[in-house]
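tool=predict chain=A
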Amino acid sequence: MSVEGSQGSTGRYRPTNSNDPGWDYGQPVDGNRDHVKCDFCGHVSKGGIKRLKQHLVKASYKGTMYKDVRKCDKVPQDVVDVLRSFMEGKQKITEEKQSKKDEMIRNVNVYGNDDDEVEEVMIQIPKKRKGPMDAFVAPIDVDFRPRAPNSNENKKALENIHGYIADFFYENNISFNCARSDSYSKMMQAIVQYNDPSTFKPPSYNDLRVKILKKKEETSNWVDNFKVHWETYGVTIMTDWWTDGKGRTLINFLVNCPKGTVFLKSIDGSAHIHDAELIYKMLKDVIEEVGEKNVIQICTDNASNYVLAGEWIMAESKIYWMPCAAHCINLMLGDVSKMHLVDETVKDAKKISLFIYNHKHVLHLMRKQTKGREIVRPAVTRFATTFLCLHSMYEKRQELRDMFHTVEWRNSKWPKHPIGKEIVKKVKSNTFWNNMHTCLKIMAPLVDVIRMVDTEEKPSMAYIYSAIEDCKLKVKTNLGDQNDDDRELWKKMERILDRRWSGMLQKPLHAAAHYLNPQYYYATLTSSDEMESNTKLKEGLLDCIAKLALDEEDESQILRDLIAYRTKAGRLGKRGAQACVKTIAPVEWWITFGSEVPALQRFAKRVLGLTSAASPCERIWSTFDNIHTKKRNCLEHDRMRDLAYIQYNRRLKKRYEERISGKEIDPIVLKSFDECAEWLVPDDARDDIVLGTDMTYGVLEDAEDGFDDPPLTRTSRTNTASHCSQEVASSSRSTTRHLQDSSDDDDYDVDANYGMGDGDDDGIDSRSDEDI
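tool=predict ok
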């Protein structure tokens, strides 16, 4: 433990803000406050200043002998008296605090204190305590035998129990999301099943700290289950960085193979996050820890420091650097969002959403029309959120239109209000909904690609090349070729897709994985010939073989084995093998049918088993929000590192178990509404100009009087949005309540071939803007 204190005028060390007289008679050894040397006899007490005082009071206090404490024979009696007086005063304060705590615990009675209903509750508090922290987690011996309660009493008792649990959440600022965790449910069930309340003892503060070591061992055993596969399949080192509320930059390192993803470690990179050379050194250390022979690629975002460090790694090793595919596709969506049609449509949709969610009466009407379903949907990124919110609003367009014909709406202030008139005009506009439909047709194929690369159900490297090509085709088909506007829109989209794919994302590994995926190579009678004639594809394949082959002999053998793959020789051409190309994963196909070409089989397994995204790095940042906080800054570095290791891997384990159990998870949908803030809380809405006037919304609303909602000042807007959407908006960093997620009520899987019908098919009239 490092020393934090000062040297007084006498040159003696004393901790900051400490009045403990023990420091007048002992000093830390080599700066370690846990090891204190006695000034009188030179004995070193290995238990801090408390153990030194026990040593100086001659190893006894009030007639009680301290165990395993050596007494000092040279300490003067006046020093003993001073220390005993201090210790007695401190003990008295501790006992007074404990007495208050005991009294509070005695008052706990979930069945109430009415003598007519329940017998007296007898609670005995053990006097013996291990330390001051045990006051907060004291064992309670309960001798409580009420008569059999009736149903009303049980109901009241359950409410009281929920109140105590809620108090625990509130007082400790615990996220309500924790109540959704499996471990929370297991904990409660375990407590209920314990059948001897008199012996029940909650874990103490020290119990929880010490048991971290045991939990780390259990977690390490789970991680070891994946390490045995690293050499066979090769791995991807995934890394990403994150800045916490205190400005520290934390860098995560995870390892992925086809069997699953594990968290390796987290490093405080505040001093060198922008330094490519130091990132390079960190990556080298991680590669050495994992084993260089096991590492196929490093996957990061596209920050210039990571790009440069990745290039240095590639130049000196057989390891590839790969940009995160999910990040690149998200950049494509960002480029699409800047297009004039999309930008204007999204702005109009946000105005409608903000109007609804910031006026309680209107929000109630909307929920009544949609049967409780929300029009705002959160996703992993802002651009994916934009798509889901547009899609959700488009799906509920008829309910939104109907809302403005209800009696409740007509009797409210809004039909005659300029703001209400503008919103009604937008919702009833055919052009608005047609433009939204076009936006969805453009964005849906890209969102499908994000879903594909972001899922952990199957390694995505084998599919990303084809997914991008299919995405281009679907966007072009969705837009059609009926007029110049459609053709011009497609040209813009094509430039966006090609710039990000060819200029940023596409790498040799993508080409090699596409070539070696039998689902595509054997798709048709001519597909293999088409691949063989694709120069860029073959160049990527040969580049990978040259880089990843074990040696020249292995490279030559892989090239010879390619002939068997191309000609369907031996087992590769058997009827069973060809029948399975579309029904089993590419890696499993090579394991099952590739034994006659072992060199190519090994190469294919290590390429096709790779991921193409570093998304798991970004998925669980809330873990580090809980660890790297001001309340935890007193944790020793090693303990904090262990806690991060345990928590992160436990969450990865949960996702792994959900995946192997067959549970369907949409990787882009979130339950937290952090990413929806711009759809829920206005930013500078008061400065916007009201349609058809030269007044701002702020001036207009301040001039209104007698409305049911207050003017939208910046503070009141935020508070109102938080209140009105308290069942909607929630965050792992907030104490706002959660809404029951509506994802079970809606199907948000959007076919990339998005609604290609005419006005009759999609429910939107193709006429110009007229009120319906």
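The chain has a mean pLDDT of 77. The chain is about 50% helix and 10% strand.
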